[in-house]
Amino acid sequence: MEKTSRLWVVGVLTLAAVTLSGCKVSATSGDRYYDRDEQHFSRGYFLDARDTGRYFPEGRWSLNYETEVCIGDTLYFETADRRVRVYGSPAYSENTFRAAATEVSTRIDGVLNRFRMSWRDFVDERSSAVPYPEQVIACLSPRVSNSNLASGTLAAVAVAPYHRSWPYEAGQIFTHELAHYVQENLSRHTASTSLLPYWFAEGQAALVAGDPVASAYRHYDYAPLRDATRNDASNVSYRFEHYALAYRYLERANGALEMTLLLDLVQFMDWTGDYRGVISSGESRAFVEAFDAMELVDHRGRYLSFARFRADYHSLVGAGG
Fold this sequence. Notes:
- By secondary structure, this protein is α/β, with parallel strands linked by helices.
- It is about 40% helix and about 10% strand.
- It has helices at about 5-15, 50, 95-115, 120-125, 170-185, 200-210, 240-255, 255-270, 285-295, 305-310, 315-320; strands at about 45-50, 75-80, 85, 135-140, 150, 155-160.
- The protein has a six-stranded mixed β-sheet with strand order 1-2-3-4-6-5.
């Protein structure tokens, strides 16, 4: 697996499946609907995989329930710059393909910027085990509701069809799910599920998308680091704001680039195959080993191990959140 020099520096010197159903970002039936001017859709071409040989990814390990529906679909729309490809049934309108491609194409660079990456950085550092490393693959999926709109995983982003019914918050939701897509591509090599704790994945995506963040003085309202997986989480809606608070603490103390390097190192741990499984509290061994190897610091500049962050979360965030 080829990695850029900054990953190898971290790996040598110091030796992250999220689905939309686990995300807060969604719209209610009373919201205004998506109204992007169709004249401003991205330019591109409709093609057929039977002619080009570029079929939708079939590796189910890298897909989720929402994206698997496009396995076998041969029709796709590809943007003129060839960075985005949208697969789907010919039953959907051409404008639905174009709308999905436009939202992905116009937002991916902004998302990558929040990870302190360029498009070329992303292509170079994403999982080499995924097909089409130089494209973002999307799937028009009837398994995604119009209110939830999208679902990002390692190999593809699922998008609800029928773009005229998309909610007004479409841009925010796309940004959130593209953040998950980037996370998965930077933190997984061949792992069949996400290696990132649920709170971390949702917190980072929330901050990237500009979602609400809990006030630091309310930190005792919820204990986000207990939610290593979605199954660990309670049903209170405000938990997502606390995931964002927990992640923001780390980013403020260490910087956004360090968080991206953390994802890179998780992928490196996955690639080596030496850090399989989970620890007793539910987090992947790859994430915990990478967290500690990164030598992250708290708000006072003192070394912060994952164990201390988990044990002293409330005192740390209360003092420096």
